[in-house]
Amino acid sequence: MDELRDKRGLTEAEAIARYRAKNYPKPALTADIAVFARSEAGLKLLLIRRGGHPFLDCWALPGGFADEGETIEQTAARELEEETHLAGLPLRMVGVYSTPGRDPRGWTVSVAFAALVARERLKAVAGDDAAEVRWFDVRDGTVILPEGEKMAFDHGQIVKDAVKY
């Protein structure tokens, strides 16, 4: 049987040999994780205070860059554990965030995940590049931050979407 050829007359092996990755710029891939807990006062969200640039000292969802060879689900679990010491949470995908300029370091696409947990059983501790971890109230899809405090990146939008989810 003859090998299949594309409209240029190339076999798959020939087409792959001609492929040039440098002709197709690639975004950085990240995962962001919204960990929610119910309390008597309502919904709570776990945030980290960023210990590095960009958005130094701003509040953010735990997360970070994917390592080569891992799935985005593995990235989410690893980053959550590195930054908060929380492991084994049931993470569900919320959406993909790719708005140009969402990260000042360059073209970055993030896959957001969410988990709803029993807060009493969690002992979150800041690790890796997280300077602090803290639970915040969420009302109508918005995180209630102290006066003058800000959210990093587009994490406010991710929180709104995760609450709807």
Task: List its salient traits.
18% helix; 33% strand; Nucleoside Triphosphate Pyrophosphohydrolase; 165 residues; alpha+beta; 8-stranded mixed sheet; elongated
Written description of the protein model:
With 165 residues, the chain is of the alpha+beta class. It has one domain (28-164): Nucleoside Triphosphate Pyrophosphohydrolase. It is 18% helix and 33% strand. It is built from three helices and eight strands. The protein has helices spanning 12-18, 72-84, 155-164, and strands at residues 28-39, 42-50, 59-60, 63-65, 92-97, 108-117, 130-139, 142-143. It is elongated, with a radius of gyration of 20 Å. The mean pLDDT is 92.
Give the topology.
Blueprint: H1 12-18, E1 28-39, E2 42-50, E3 59-60, E4 63-65, H2 72-84, E5 92-97, E6 108-117, E7 130-139, E8 142-143, H3 155-164
Parallel strand pairs: 1-6
Antiparallel strand pairs: 1-2, 1-4, 2-3, 2-7, 5-6, 7-8
Give a brief outline of the structure.
The protein is 18% helix and 33% strand. By secondary structure, it is α+β, with helices and mostly antiparallel strands.
Q: What CATH architecture would you give?
A: Alpha-Beta Complex
Count the beta strands: 8
Write down the Rg.
20 Å
CATH topology: Nucleoside Triphosphate Pyrophosphohydrolase
**Number of contiguous helices:** 3
Shape: elongated
Counting structural domains, the number is: 1
**CATH top-level class:** Alpha Beta
